[in-house]
């Protein structure tokens, strides 16, 4: 047992941050990957991701960290955080022309340039962690009702070169964690400031229209009415789910996966029907498109173990 990292994990949880174990000396989550999921124990209802396993429960944290000197992963979304990851320039790395022209040499510089261009104050005075590479993690609270995703560099809604963000679907290595590259340590262990409005606006993607639940049509004239009703019923449960969306999607995938394995349906049509039904929930809390796809895959795999044949 490593009492140092256990204490750090408990301290993080006391702040309201949802934590989960990282492999000792690594930045990767502990536990099995989805493709190696046994479908038993905590994953009996479908593979549980690190984001789903993250907790603030002191008892669960003590139980986990008693087993090994785990590092600390902080699930940003469930914790109500958006963490700005400001990276450094590697030896010999060329600075892109757009940033070299304004004298930027690292993520900190890029953030300063962005603030200046937006005629806004440089965001500061918030809890800050130094990474082993010399970069910084700036922690910010996300206002209620705002849902942000991860960004990477300048891609998509990204802020800029050497600036990543971690929100829903992402995690950061927590302070107190020792990796092979070094330790993550507080620079300033103060309050977590609210994410500035101008950054929220930059990071919020344009809203997408809700995915319609298209009528499920028979794949061919030979398809029985029973199968058509079965697909409609399962897709309808997913579309109408108000809570436990992921569990509902998993159960539907298991049921239809049995018919796929029994050669009554094709996997492609089942995936299409379930993804269409799940589409209206994408963006709700931690329910992402990637998570929906994984859940369907897991459910189909479980259903295949108990094939159903339709005459």
TrEMBL record:
<protein>
    <submittedName>
        <fullName>DNA primase</fullName>
    </submittedName>
</protein>
<feature type="region of interest" description="Disordered">
    <location>
        <begin position="285"/>
        <end position="311"/>
    </location>
</feature>
<dbReference type="InterPro" id="IPR015330">
    <property type="entry name" value="DNA_primase/pol_bifunc_N"/>
</dbReference>
<feature type="domain" description="DNA primase/polymerase bifunctional N-terminal">
    <location>
        <begin position="9"/>
        <end position="199"/>
    </location>
</feature>
<dbReference type="Pfam" id="PF09250">
    <property type="entry name" value="Prim-Pol"/>
</dbReference>
């Amino acid at each position: 047992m490593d009492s140092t990292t256990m204490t750090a994990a408990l301290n993080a949880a006391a702040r309201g941050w949802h934590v989960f174990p990282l492999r000792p000396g690594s930045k990767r989550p502990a536990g099995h990957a989805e493709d190696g999921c046994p479908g038993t124990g905590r994953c009996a209802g479908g593979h549980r991701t690190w984001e789903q396993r993250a907790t603030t429960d002191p008892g669960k944290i003590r139980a986990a960290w008693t087993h090994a000197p785990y590092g600390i992963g902080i699930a940003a979304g469930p914790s109500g955080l958006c963490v700005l990851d400001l990276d450094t320039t590697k030896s010999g790395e060329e600075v892109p022309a757009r940033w070299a022209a304004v004298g930027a040499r690292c993520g900190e510089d890029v953030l300063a340039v962005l603030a200046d261009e937006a005629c806004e104050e440089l965001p500061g005075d918030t809890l800050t962690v130094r990474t082993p590479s010399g970069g910084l993690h700036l922690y910010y609270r996300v206002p209620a009702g705002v849902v942000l995703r991860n960004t990477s560099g300048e891609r998509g809604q990204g802020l800029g070169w050497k600036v990543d963000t971690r929100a829903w679907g992402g995690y950061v290595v927590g302070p107190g964690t020792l990796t092979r590259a070094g330790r993550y340590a507080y620079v300033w262990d103060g309050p977590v400031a609210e994410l500035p409005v101008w950054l929220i606006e930059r990071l919020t993607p344009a809203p997408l229209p809700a995915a319609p639940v298209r009528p499920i049509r028979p794949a061919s004239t030979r398809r029985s009415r029973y199968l058509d009703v079965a697909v409609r019923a399962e897709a309808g449960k997913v579309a109408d789910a108000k809570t436990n969306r992921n569990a509902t999607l998993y159960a539907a995938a298991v049921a239809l996966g049995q018919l796929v394995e029994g050669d009554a349906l094709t996997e492609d049509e089942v995936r299409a029907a379930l993804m269409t039904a799940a589409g209206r929930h994408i963006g709700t809390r931690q329910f992402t498109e990637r998570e929906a796809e994984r859940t369907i895959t897991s459910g189909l795999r479980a259903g295949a173990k108990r094939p159903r044949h339709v005459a």
